[in-house]
Amino acid sequence: MPAGAGGAGGRGLWEGDPVSKVEEFEELRPLLFSIAYRILGSVGEAEDAVQDTWLRFDASTTRVDSPKGFLSATVTRIAIDVLRSARVRREEYVGPWFPEPLLSDPYEDPQRAAELADSVSMASLLLLERLSPLERSVFVLREVFAFGFDEVASAVGRSEAACRQLLVRARRHMRAGRPRFEVDGQERRELAARFFTALSEGDVDGLRSLLAADVTLVGDGGGKAPQPARAVAGAENVARLLASVQPLLARIDVTFEEHEINGRPGAIFLDRNARVLQVLALDVVDGRIQTLRLVTNPEKLDHLGPVGDAWAVNEELRRQRAAGRGDRSAPGRG
To answer: At 80, phi and psi to the nearest 5?
Structure first.
C-alpha cells in the first residue's frame, strides 16, 4: 500500500464509485514505475517518482475522469524534473554511467511486448540518455506505451504539434544508434549459456569464439567500487582478462548467478556471504557478444539485496594474483 494511504483520500471511496483511490493506484503502479524507469534509468528515482505521484493523487479532492491519464501525466512530469537535475550529477559522474540494473519489468502488455523489452535494455536506455528530457518522455510515452498525442501533450505540457516534432527528433537519434542486427531472445539465451560455461571454466578459446572482434568490456563503479581503469577492447583481450580473473574469483568463493538484466542475458556476482558485488549485462549483436557492462557502484545495486565490500574482495583478488606469481617463480616449480 502506498505510504500515506491511511489518510481520508487513501481510505475512502470515490463518491459513488466502489473502487478506492488505493486500489486504482495499485493497479496502475507497474505502468507508472515502467514509465518513470525508462525516463530516469534509475530504480530508486523511479520508485520515488511513483511515491510522489501517489501523494499528489491522494491529496486531490476532485474526481479524476481518467486515473490512468492523470497518474501517467503526473509521474512523467515528476520524472522530467528529476531528470533535469540528474543530468548535472551525471556530467560530474566518475567514469562511465550506466542505468541501474533492473531484474524484471513489473509492467506487462502482450500487445506491446516487443517495444517494452527493447526499450528497457541497457543499450536502449543509454541511447535515451542522448535525448533531451522532453524528447525522451515523448518517445517513451508514444513509442513504448502507445499513448495518444493528446495524452502525451498533456503529460509534457506542450502542444500536439510540438510533441510530433519532438518525436521525430527522438526517433532520428534512436535510429542512428541502433545496432546492425539483434538476434532473437532464444539465440541470446543459448549464446549466453555457452558464454557463462566458458567463463566458469576459464576457457579462453571458448570465450573468444563468442565475442565480436570489436567487443568492449566497460565498468561503472562511480568511484565507489573497483572498476576497469579503461574499457577493455578486442576479443583476445577481453577473453584473456575474463579467463584469468574468474578462476581467482572462484578461489575466494565469489560466485555468479545467471539472470536476465534489463531483459537481456547477464549475471549477478555474489561474495561468500551471498552479498551482491556486481552485475554483468551482455549485449548480443550479429550473433556475438558486442558489449559487456559491469555495474559495481554499490548505490546502483542495493535494490538487489545486501551489497558486499567490493574493495575487500578486490584486495583478496590482488593477493591471489601475487601468490600465483610467487608460486610460478619459486625454485623447483613448473
So the answer is: -60, -45
Q: Where are the beta strands (DSSP E) in the chain?
A: 211-220, 232-233, 255-258, 266-270, 276-285, 288-295
Cell 550473433 appears where? 287
CA angle 252, 256, 259 (to 5 degrees): 170
Residue the block writes with cell 502482450: 110
* pTM, 2 dp: 0.90
Q: Residue 172 carries which side chain, given as an amino acid letter?
A: R
Do both 161 and 191 map to the same domain? no
Q: In this structure, what C-alpha cell is assigned to residue 235? A: 576479443
Residue given cell 500487445 in the structure block: 111
Count the domains in the chain.
2
- 201 within a domain of the structure (yes/no): yes
Q: How far apart are the first and last CA of the chain?
A: 64
pLDDT in tens, 197-242: 999 999 999 999 999 999 999 999 999 999 888 999 999 999 999 9
Comparing 75-84, 133-142, 150-159, 221-230, which segment has the lowest mean pLDDT? 221-230
Structural domain boundaries, residue 273 = 185-329
pLDDT at 179: 62
Grid cell of 9 as nine digits: 483520500
